[in-house]
Design goal:
Largest sheet: none
Strand content: under 5%
Number of helices: 21
Distance between the termini: 29 Å
Helix content: 55-70%
Number of domains: 1
Number of strands: 0
Radius of gyration: 22 Å
């Protein structure tokens, strides 16, 4: 029987995946954040992967590249973070520090352009001078597309190095395109890494498409250029290296992109990689400390307070359903310690990737950060670990993001994701306990997926 490579079924699945990514970009660009669309298309993608009759890594990577193209045709949609990335890289190339200067600082007026500062030319005065102020306004300013332009950057040193390298090769007239292209390339590279690693472990490489063909990844990498995609790559690289020191180095670097990867330290066996990870993270700040001094923390303390993490006033959405603000932070801390101890107890009893997956996912469910792109590393971890039920967490985060301001609704949405995870884990380890409640091909797909 003749059958042309890669087969009509597989080609159709790739085209549908690209259509899902395109739909995510269009939906986000011309309406509100595509919460229901992302949920629906991700579930569809889960089913489509079963029909992709190929184990070709090349085809998986090509499909991932095609899925990133729609995002590159549009300016960042889900946030304005990419404009801050561009600015931070440009500031460092000029010899200044984004930790010690805010974007509206007139001392950096020569770095302005019409894309980042549509309302300020290099010769205009903003009225902002001097080092960052503790009481600076946190509001956006219509004169610039950079968010919170009167406070310094929040991003750690490895993220800053990434911004600088991209800025070096991106002309000012390209705006955020250089970062979008870099993020898309990282997403495609991670697809290849996941597919190769799954094959090496004797598992079906098709499941790498759950990352590479995901409309979420298309929306947050090629479109929004979120640096979380770099953190995801470094995490997966760390978990697929055989040398303990290299695992620690990469995990520490991931923590110096976004702080959340440091939460995975309890899941890493042995003390040496933990020590290397912490040392790498701290060492990354040394060059900036020499330049910015005590300002090296940037806006991080203010960000934690603004987002409600410091007092529990507006985060911990699931806990907020049953606890007053003053108790949420304490309970979240107790849960965090319990999760860390549980991760330590799982050494040698399950693959490290599995521990990292549930530890990262549980952290997101406890803290429920406002921004759904924080869940990008969790998607990659879910693929590597073969625990795809955890993708419910970033999906719920998008739905909650579109419900911002409705605290109870946000909490219930996050609680629904928790229930999906708990039920699926119960089905996997204790199928008889819930066999009368849930059955059928969808449940079996979730349980047996990778």
């Amino acid at each position: 029987m003749k059958r042309s490579w890669p087969g009509w079924t597989t080609a159709l699945v790739v085209l549908l995946a690209v259509a899902c990514s395109t739909g995510a970009i269009i939906t986000a660009a011309y309406s509100w954040y595509p919460n229901l669309f992302l949920v629906g298309t991700t579930i569809l993608l889960l089913l489509l992967i079963k029909f992709a009759r190929t184990r070709s890594v090349l085809l998986l990577v090509a499909g991932a590249a095609l899925c990133q193209v729609p995002g590159l045709t549009h300016a960042p949609i889900t946030s304005t973070d990419a404009y801050r990335y561009v600015w931070d890289g440009r500031v460092q190339l000029s010899g200044s520090s984004p930790y010690s200067h805010v974007p509206l600082d007139d001392a950096l007026a020569k770095l302005r352009d019409p894309i980042l500062f549509p309302g300020l030319s290099p010769t205009d005065r903003s009225g902002v001078v001097g080092p960052p102020r503790a009481d600076a306004p946190l509001d956006d300013d219509p004169r610039t597309r950079i968010n919170r332009p009167q406070v310094p950057t929040i991003y750690p040193p490895v993220a800053q190095a990434y911004f600088t390298v991209v800025a070096l090769f991106t002309p000012w007239s390209a705006g955020t395109f250089g970062l979008q292209l870099a993020a898309a390339a990282i997403a495609v590279a991670l697809t290849w890494l996941l597919a190769v690693e799954l094959r090496r472990r004797g598992r079906d490489p098709r499941w790498a498409a759950l990352w590479g063909w995901s409309p979420i990844v298309a929306l947050e990498a090629g479109s929004a250029a979120h640096v979380d995609v770099l953190a995801a790559l470094l995490i997966i690289l760390a978990l697929t290296r055989r040398r303990a020191w290299l695992t620690g180095l990469l995990l520490g670097a991931a923590g110096a992109v976004k702080l959340l990867p440091l939460l995975l330290l309890p899941a890493i066996p042995r003390l040496r990689p933990k020590f290397v990870a912490v040392s790498t993270f701290l060492a990354s700040y040394v060059p900036h400390l020499a330049v910015a001094g005590t300002l090296v923390a940037g806006f991080l303390p203010g960000y934690l307070h603004q987002e409600g993490f410091s007092d529990g006033s507006s985060r911990f959405a699931i806990l907020a359903l049953v606890l007053p603000p003053e108790a949420r932070q304490l309970v979240a801390g107790v849960i965090a310690v319990g999760l860390a101890l549980l991760a330590l107890s799982r050494h040698g009893r399950e693959p490290v990737a599995v521990t990292c997956c549930w530890l990262y996912g549980a952290a997101l469910l406890v803290a429920t950060p406002t921004y759904p792109w924080y869940g990008l590393p969790l998607i990659a971890l879910a693929v590597l670990a073969g625990r795809i039920e955890w993708i419910a967490v970033p999906l719920a985060a998008y739905w909650a993001y579109a419900s911002f301001g409705h605290d109870v609704r946000q909490g219930l949405i996050q609680l629904a994701a928790l229930l999906v995870v708990v039920i699926t884990i119960t089905l996997r380890y204790r199928p008889d306990a819930v066999s009368r409640l849930i059955s059928g091909p969808t449940a079996r797909t979730l349980i047996r997926a990778p």
